[in-house]
Structure formats: C-alpha cells, structure tokens
Automatic annotation (TrEMBL):
GO molecular function: voltage-gated potassium channel activity
Superkingdom of source: Eukaryota
Pfam family, one: Ion_trans
Residue ranges crossing the lipid bilayer per the database entry: 33-52, 64-84, 104-124, 144-165
Membrane topology: Multi-pass membrane protein
GO biological process terms held by the UniProt record: action potential
Record protein name field: Ion transport domain-containing protein
Compartment list: Membrane
Length: 192
C-alpha cells in the first residue's frame, strides 16, 4: 500500500509542511510523523527480523566462503541495507544535495527494497510440495507455452470479431480491439 499514489511521499510531505519547507526541496526534516507512521513501524519490525535472521545465519554458517559467495545472501543484504541508509539520512537531519549521482544511488537503493520478494524463494526451496510443483512446471513447460499461445490467438480472434460486431451498438464498452481482446481473455479464462 505504500506505493499507492495517495501514500507516496505522504509522510515526507507532512514533515516538510510542518517545518515550512518547500515540497520541491531535497531537505526532509526529522519529525515524529515519519517515525509513528504505520508503514515505518511495520517496516522496522520486518527489517529488524530480517537483520537478526541474517546475522544469525552469518554467525552460525559452517563456511564463510560459501556464505559470502551465495547470491541469496547478497540479495538479503541488499534488501536490508536501504532501510538503514534511509534511517541514517532521517536521523542526521541534514540537507542532501541531490546531484545526479546521489539521486541515482538513492533510487537504486530504493529499488533494492524490492529484493525482499526473493525471500519467498527460500520458502519455495525448503518445502517439498513446492519443489514437486516446480518440477511439474518444468516438465510441462512446453505444453503450458502451447496453451498460452493458443489462448492468446483465440483471444485476439474473438476480440477482433467482437469489436467489429459490437462497434456500432456498444461503442463505449468496445472502443478498440485491445479492450475487446481484454474482454475476450476475461471471458475465455473465467467462463471457458
């Protein structure tokens, strides 16, 4: 929900408004609204858990070489670090001069937060039933691809036919072949 437009930058803007700072400024003042927001509290709890789990895995690893060379461990670290960078920037309460390289680095760190999704891979890797599902999908990949191609072809054909049949009577629902194709995909997959 943090990515919804109504929540995007909401807490930073509240802090800027309280401090009477221009919204176009790169300065984000420290204020309590940021630290009591539900997003910050939930993120703090989750990142704390991930950090403790990462540190315990690092401490108890039998081979530090394998731990350091593992891509999943680097993914975990890259998902944890942006939170601490954000926290340091907020707690130092300093103006950040957003030149091009700093802006790119901050955006890249924000994208690294997405890497938390790859934690699902660890769960996928541990459960036997999910490994069986994965093996089944690998074995039937060609059949699945043929089904997707056939579904797409049929959806485009029915979408185009529906558009030409309904364009004079229902111009609002079928204003283009793409919307008619979307309707055909929904109809084929839900009813058919």
């Amino acid at each position: 929900t943090e990515t919804l437009p109504e929540f995007d930058e909401k807490w930073d803007n509240i802090c800027r408004i309280r401090a009477n700072v221009s919204l176009s400024s790169s300065y984000v003042p420290r204020c309590s609204a940021l630290f009591i927001s539900p997003f910050f509290i939930i993120e703090t709890i989750c990142v704390s858990y991930f950090t403790i789990e990462f540190l315990l895995r690092f401490i108890s690893t039998p081979s530090y070489y394998r731990f350091i060379t593992s891509l999943l461990n680097w993914t975990d670290l890259a998902a944890i670090v942006p939170y601490y960078v954000f926290l340091c920037v907020q707690l130092t309460d300093r103006k950040i001069d957003l030149n091009a390289s700093t802006f790119i680095i901050l955006r890249l760190l924000r994208l690294f937060r997405f890497l938390r999704v790859f934690k699902i891979y660890l769960i996928f890797h541990r459960l036997k039933s999910l490994r069986v599902l994965s093996a089944t999908l690998k074995e039937s990949f060609m059949d699945f691809t043929i089904m997707i191609v056939a579904l797409t072809l049929v959806a485009f054909l029915f979408g185009a036919a529906t558009y030409f049949a309904e364009k004079d009577t229902d111009r609002e629902s079928f204003d283009s072949i793409f919307s008619a194709t979307y309707w055909a995909i929904l109809t084929i997959t839900s009813v058919g």
